[in-house]
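I hope you will forgive my troubling you with a question about protein structure. Here, with my thanks, is the record as I have it:
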Amino acid sequence: MLGFGVVMLVGSMSADAAAPSPNVILMMSDDQGWGDVGFNGNDQIQTPHLDQMAANGIRFDRFYAAAPLCSPTRGSCLTGRYPFRFGILAAHTGGMRVGEITIAEMLKKKGYQTGFFGKWHIGWVKPEEVGTRGFYSPPSHHGFDEYFATTSAVPTWNPTVTPSGWDSWGGQEGEPWKGGFPYVHNGQEAKDNLDGDDSRVIMDRVIPFVESNKDQPFFATVWFHTPHEPVVAGEAFKKLYAKSGRTRQNYYGCITAMDEQIGRLREKLRDLEIEKHTVVFFCSDNGPSDGLAKKGVASAGPFSGHKHTMYDGGLLVPACAEWPGVIPAGTSTDTRCATVDYFPTIIKLAGLVMPDKDKRPIDGIDLLQVIQGKVTDRGKDLFFGYRRLHQGIDGKAIISGDWKLLQEAKQDGRVRLFDLSSDPFEQHDLCTELPDRAKELSEKLAELEASCDRSRDGADYRY
């Protein structure tokens, strides 16, 4: 049933340019760990809509972010390329180059309306904000017709106000958050309807976009700030976790609030009777926050590590996809998939291919082949990394088959080797026991990094 439905759809689109193309919604949370959803076994956090979405479609049990932090992963989602190729190596470093081709730019060739909503973080959205660590590169420079975006993080409740008890970056308690109006709507600073749950603030802009484009193909990218710090939940959501401490009430509460908005979007698709013509993807951008994971609040499930580490706890994220009538309910896969896979999957769904003259490397694979059960091994290596000049941070990793080699993202950069088939939680370093295997993966890692360096230095396009 699954294979027939997808193959017929893609085949007809390839043969007939007038054939309908599915709507695509690409959702992402921020710093939500692999274990921070019900569908991955968490019985404390209430995520009924995400759980239902996973149950009605496919659950990706081994889905990787391209980096253990936000900005590099975000760029990988839109380009299908490793972050080291397009030069966004960490948060607040650089911005998306106009020479990169995004999903939105490709889909516009097929007549899609494109919209971006939420946390951008791959370029500044206000020209006056440009500093030494990035440049102005808003969604409108990368194929999005409409956008409602912030440059980076905002409080998950009342996003224009620095929350009570917050004493870190962003502003003073009770004062405007980074000036008070972090959202930009189509080039203009947004000043209305910004109170309360930030996920609701975002969804209030997504819903009208979906409604206005229900009769034509659309691509909506919805990137929530939840549950990135400052983590705050409204009172009604905190009460759901009354027996938990304050930190958990806010963390769990804001995730449940986001889940409610995801349910609202899914219900709208059904009200408009377009759910069977819409594929919805969901994932997080990296593992759980360092501090909240160390406190035992945020969860990477059984995996080692957290955000900013090259272990699977920093890279594996919760992920699922729903497409009624095409993806059978109850589907799951432990094939290793990644955020770089969205680009080749979505452009193929739309019946598009990269032009022959464009020889740039695309690092992802077609997820349809995985969903159909035709592919159980991705057939190519996965490369991860992030780099900061500050403190000499240079973390990298490669997964080749069931083997993983990582260079820790610390100044000493210790290298470790794991056999994920027998040691999925990375407890036993095999570097000393298997030096030849470590050398082989080190050479593969060096080759992939060299390829990325060539891309970053101008081999793929002029810029």
Notes: The first helix runs from residue 2 to 15.
